[in-house]
Structures are given as C-alpha cells and as structure tokens.
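#data-curation
PF: Archiving a pair of folding outputs for the training set. Convention for this channel: one message per protein, sequence first, structure tokens after, nothing in between. First:
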Amino acid sequence: MGQGKCEKMIGNEPGEVDALLKAARAFRKANEKQIKINPENASGDHLEGAFRCYTQALSRLPDDSVTKAAIIRELKEVSPNVEITSNFSSPSHRIWDLEQSAEESIKIHDYVAAFEKLTEIYDDVTERRCEEMYPQVMQRVEVTRLLLLCLLQLPPSVRYDHKFIERYSAIGDGQQTGASILSEELFFLLQSLVVSCQAKDIESLIAVRDELSHCKQLTGSQQRLLGELVGKYSK
C-alpha cells in the first residue's frame, strides 16, 4: 500500500493500480495462511484490507476498462455481493458473471433463478453458434441445469427447452444431443438419474448418485446438488 501512495504522489496511476492489486493479493494470501494456522480465530481484517485495496484500484480506472472488469472479478471472490459493475462487456465476462450469479442463487436455494441464469448462458452461446469455444462452460451449464430441473421436479412454470429434458428421459433412445457436450459415460449416467427421478425409484437414484460421486467431471457445487436431490426424493 505504501508503494501505491508513492505512485499516486508522482501521478503514476498505472503504477498505483498495480501496487494496490499486489497489496490486495498479499492481504488475501495472509488471510489464507491465517485460516490454515488458526481457523477458529481467523479475523476478517485481511479481507477488509484486500477489499479496500481493490476498491481503491477500481476508483482509478475508467468504467470501460478491461482491467476494471478483471479486478471486479477478483473482488467478487472476496465479496460476492458487492454492487460494483463495469461498462466493459465481452462474452467471456458475461458468462463468468452469470455463472457466479447462478452459484450465489444455488447457495440460497433459489433454484429457479439459478436455472434461468444458466439458461441465459446456454441460449447466448448456442445463438452465436460458438459452442466449440466454450466446451467446459457448456458441460457445466448442461449438468447443473439438469440437476436443478430434477430438484425442481420439472414444474411447468419454469421456462425450459422441452427437448432438453426429453433427451434424458429414456435410456438408450438414441437422442444423444447431450453427448456432443458430455462424455458418453456421463450422458448415460444423467439419463439414468432423470429416469430414476421421474419414476421415483429411490434405490436406482442412490445407485446413480454413488456412481456420479466418483465422476471427476462434476464440480463441487454439482455434487452438493446431487446430494440434495437424493435427499429430496428420499423423503
């Protein structure tokens, strides 16, 4: 932070921003070390320091700056609910923002909102016909949307592409559009999951859950949704 003040005094804004970013990242590393050493007594002082450095750096940048958009992404890792935006827009940044927003919705169990945000990503990418540019994104979106629909028990009030759920509704029916996004193994496991949910076959659902729990392609968030799904249908 001291370096940032020096850069400010000599009117070197790029140098000041760089120094503030380094300070913010140093605060975050210190916070991580503190948590590892003594997680029970970890304070939020380091994160507050990181937050101050990030916001000071942002105040030095124009709204349409790509650097500002990148810093906001880092800041949201510290403070997900911060209400700071940038006028800079790119497909990748929009996808990231929507995914992060969907994750926040999932955390508060607002599955309809999460589904709609992920559908926005799916629609945007497919409309631009650039699926090959975002294979991992499309896989995450495909799997999470499917899990959310199963959790919501596919209510008609939720907007979704009917063909999306149809291709997972019958084992071995040859409708393997999803296989272009997912591995064949994951695609068939998800088909089994949907069929088990629709049939309310708890034993089959648990068996599929056990197989999917070893699937490295699923994210931590998706594994948690899977656990919630089994719990919901087991009641």
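PF: Second:
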Amino acid sequence: MLIDLYQSYGVAQAPTTPTGDLPRASHVTFWVQHVGSWEARSLSLRELGLSTPVTVVSCRARSFSVNNRPPPKYPGHVPLNFVERGALAVGSAVGALLNPRRADLIAACGEATATPYFIYRLRDAMLSDPTGRQILRERPRITSETLPLPYLRSLPENSVGRTYAAWLDREGVSPDTRDNVQYIDDEECAYVMQRYRECHDFYHAVTGLPTFVEGEIALKAFEFLNTLIPMTGLSMFAAVRLKPAERERFFALWLPWAVRSGLASKELVNVYWEKILEKDVDELRSELGIEKPPDMREIRRMIREQKKREKERLQQSA
C-alpha cells in the first residue's frame, strides 16, 4: 500500500536499505501542507490503523502549480500562488481603473492586495475589540433576507436602519450584489473581507455619499484611512477619470473630508450594524467620529441649475 502511495507521488522506485530490503519503522512520515508551506508530520501505526512491521516510505510533495493546487479551505476558495496573485492584482487594478464600475474587478483587486499583511491587521483589530470578537464568533451576513427592506423602512425616521433603506432605494442598490470572497487563503480573514464588503453600503448610508464615481472615490478615500485596505487607496487613482470640475471638487472638498473623518473615526469594521438599526444616525456618527460631508447630489444639482440659468441668459441676450 505504501509503495503505491510513494509511486503516486511520481517516484519510480521506492528507497531500499543496503541489503535491498525496504526500511521498517513504527512511524510513517508524510508531508502535509500547513499555512501555505509543507511540513513533515509523523503518524503512528495506531493513527494509521496498521499493524507492525510497516514499510517506511518517504513521500515527496509536489510543488504548487496550476495542475496541482492545494484543496480549497472554504466554499468558493481559489488558492493562488505568488505569481498568480501578483498577476491578478495588476490585471484587476488596471481593469478597474479603466472601468470603475466593474465591481468584480474591484473585489478581485481588494482580495489580491489585502494579503499578507493588511487583512490580518483588520482581523486583529476585530479581535482586540469586544464587538469585533462577537462579530467574528457569530459571523452575520448582510443580505435582503437577513435585513428585510420592509422592516427597515418601518423603523423610526433618522434611524440607522431607515437611513440605510432610504439610501438603497434612492441609489437603486441591493445588498445581495456583493461578490463572495475567493482569493484570501485564511478562512477567518476571508470572512473579515466579506464583512467589510457587505458593510460598504452602510458606510455610504451614514455618510450620504452616492454611488456614482465621484461619490465612490470619496468614500474609498475615507475607507483607506479607516481600514488601510490597499484597494481603497488604489481606487483614488480613478480621480484621473473625473471631469475637471469634479476633480477640482474632489481635492478641494471630498479628500480633506476623507482625511479628517478617516483618521478621527473608530474602526468601522467593529460596528455591529444589525444591532443598532434603531439608533439615531446622527448620534452614531458622533460616537464613531464621522463628520457628515456636504450633500454631493445637492451640490451637483445646484451646479446643473446654475449652468442652465447661464445658458438661458446667454440665449436671451443673443
């Protein structure tokens, strides 16, 4: 049996002793994958369910390749090697810059660039906070089933839940559109990234920022200073795609707001949104240290009306 196992690893002939016999021992050493590397593990005869004597065979581990991936660590997990992760990070970042509305590319870039340090830092921030630890234990998900919109709309005016539902209705967004995490190897860290992703719309609702590109870049700047996830910082490069007037507003108005609030606010990943749906949103912003930014939609509406009046005045004077 062990000779067959040895040959299944691609070795033509098992090692022998100087007398030509196969070596024997009471333990068998296998190579197993552990946290991205291979380590030797010695199994006793009792653990293997075998009787003595046992033939000792050294099993050579295959290297990580496209045709020989380690098994997934959670449903949907796609293990990547260093080269694949780097290619995914670069490709998705470039694609997202060319088309900032490609949520799938933004998600892939976020996962590819969050390891090895940044997602662990965010996980540790949750572990150091009582509410964060509770979230990691219970692992809630934010969907239209766990947070039904009819219930949210019935909550008191200016409550967190009512504000969230109103923002979803105004922007035409559903909480069910978030992609599942695939490329983060650690299962707990994968949940942390999923939690951040599903809470993103709550950040929108609390700040009032809309979903068009100008609003997304402003929120990503805030998120970068709050979470340090690289993708949120890289998203600010999309400012080059803004119109000149929008870019001027971003650097004059939204970026200073993001710096002030991002540095002053508490870790938003530790907010258990499902538990505070009836809380007053202004009170929550005060507790979290978030300054409410100017209404971006209202500013854009006023600018459009001003341009319209100027155009009409020019037509009348012509």
